[in-house]
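Retry 2 of 3 after timeout on previous attempt. Resubmitting structure tokens to design endpoint.
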């Protein structure tokens, strides 16, 4: 069993938006913090789809977790946590780590909904490498004359952002045909303001088909079958179908079937099973149910750090009160939607706002500590300026774009 020093020991499992923000709040002078993630880098999920159009190459969306932890004075271990009790956790290496408090922030896994062939033949967009692969296949198709049929499965925010980026780069190329497929009848069904119509209008004259109201029954190398039995040709199937709980949340359960439950927590983020174990971010299921959004995960991560400190010093824990923030959904360079509770607004200018959030977020997670870092940071800004702000804000395109801000209720 590994245990370190005399300071209270805190383990954080999962170093995504929630886990990293929790780690940032905890001072290494007061706590012995170990952060564990199976991957070496955090990948900036809200911007991954931009790799598909080539607007980002992917490497600028990754930050080394080891470096972030070194700057904070915390320990990083690249491992998968396979089990957790009220006092320790078990790594895939066989090591056990003892803790006084633990934060689980393991996010979610691709939800292929048990569709046969989906995990094998469809491409996910949840990692830089997945999006780089999709980008490569599409770039290669521009070199020949053969048609590439691209299917996006899932017409929620992720699917719309993916389709938008593909259209940004390839909508005027004759080699491409696009289709969007979803069991739901509407595009962006969770968003107020009937954005379905708006999205459809943008692609009216483009080679885009919507096959809505029928789920995918199976995926094969050359295409897919819908639940109504219809076969659809597809050379590149992209899966944008949401997320499932990670197995850790249901480890140690005695159920014969693998459970698919999110981590149930109280309003303090303490798990129902152990008071020393907190669950936050996408992994947490607490009333009220919140959308899986990075800003919620960040808020939860910051909040849980305070409750962990309160638990360790014997103080009463505080209850989390989620703030409501609008969700931003981009549709390539065709539009960007800001979705509020009850209405949505649309303007291509919002794309620049989303980019600003990304650059500031990266800076906040990894502020420059030396001259080389500073130059790299300027580089990130410079690339954002060149690829996003300037095209959006240049006076010529602005004339057309400013008039397009609209309200949908
Ligand atoms: C493609 C995509 C686009 C998105 N776009 C947006 C957007 O535009 N705006 C927005 O607000 N939100 C967006 N989201 C949602 C947002 O990214 C998530 O809500 C957010 O990442 C959740 O943060 P988290 O810390 O809970 O989990 P994650 O960021 O998923 O981090 C979980 C971490 O846990 C690690 N992990 C899991 N299991 C284990 C284990 N057993 N042992 C060790 N490590 C483990 C994983 O490797 C991962 O690093 C998007 C998500 C995706 C997938």
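Retry 2 succeeded. Sequence:
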């Amino acid at each position: 069993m590994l245990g370190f020093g005399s300071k209270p020991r805190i383990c954080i499992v999962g170093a995504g938006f929630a886990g990293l923000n929790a780690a940032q709040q905890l001072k290494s002078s007061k706590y012995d913090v170990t952060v564990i993630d199976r991957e070496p880098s955090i990948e900036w999920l809200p911007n991954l789809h931009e790799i598909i159009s080539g607007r980002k190459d992917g490497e600028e969306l990754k930050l080394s977790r080891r470096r972030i932890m070194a700057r904070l004075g915390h320990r990083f271990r690249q491992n998968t946590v396979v089990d957790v009790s009220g006092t320790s956790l078990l790594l895939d290496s066989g090591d056990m780590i003892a803790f006084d408090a633990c934060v689980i922030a393991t996010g979610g896994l691709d939800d292929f909904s048990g569709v046969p062939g989906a995990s094998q033949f469809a491409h996910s967009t949840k990692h830089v490498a997945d999006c780089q692969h999709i980008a490569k296949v599409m770039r290669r198709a521009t070199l020949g004359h053969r048609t590439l049929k691209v299917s996006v499965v899932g017409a929620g925010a992720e699917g719309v952002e993916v389709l938008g980026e593909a259209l940004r780069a390839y909508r005027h190329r004759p080699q491409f045909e696009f289709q969007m497929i979803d069991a739901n009848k509407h595009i962006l069904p969770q968003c107020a303001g009937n954005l379905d119509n708006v999205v459809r209008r943008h692609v009216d004259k483009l080679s885009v088909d919507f096959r809505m109201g029928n789920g995918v029954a199976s995926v094969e190398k050359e295409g897919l079958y819908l639940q109504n039995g219809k076969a659809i040709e597809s050379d590149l199937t992209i899966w944008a179908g949401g997320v499932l709980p990670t197995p850790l949340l249901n480890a140690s359960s005695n159920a014969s079937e693998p459970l698919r439950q999110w981590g149930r927590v109280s309003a303090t983020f303490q798990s129902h099973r152990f008071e020393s174990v907190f669950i936050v971010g996408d992994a947490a299921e607490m009333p009220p149910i919140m959308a899986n959004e990075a800003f919620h995960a960040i808020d939860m991560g910051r909040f849980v750090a305070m409750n962990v400190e309160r638990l360790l010093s014997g103080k009463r824990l505080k209850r989390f009160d989620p703030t409501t923030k609008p969700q931003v959904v981009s549709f390539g360079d065709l539009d960007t939607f800001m979705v509020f509770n009850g209405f949505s607004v649309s303007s291509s200018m919002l794309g620049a706002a989303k980019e600003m959030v990304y650059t500031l977020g990266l800076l906040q997670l990894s502020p420059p500590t030396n001259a080389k870092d500073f130059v790299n940071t300027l580089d990130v800004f410079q690339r954002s300026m060149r690829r996003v702000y300037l095209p959006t804000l240049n006076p010529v395109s602005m004339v057309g774009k400013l008039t397009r801000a609209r309200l949908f209720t």
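Attempt log closed. Residues 327-403 form one domain.
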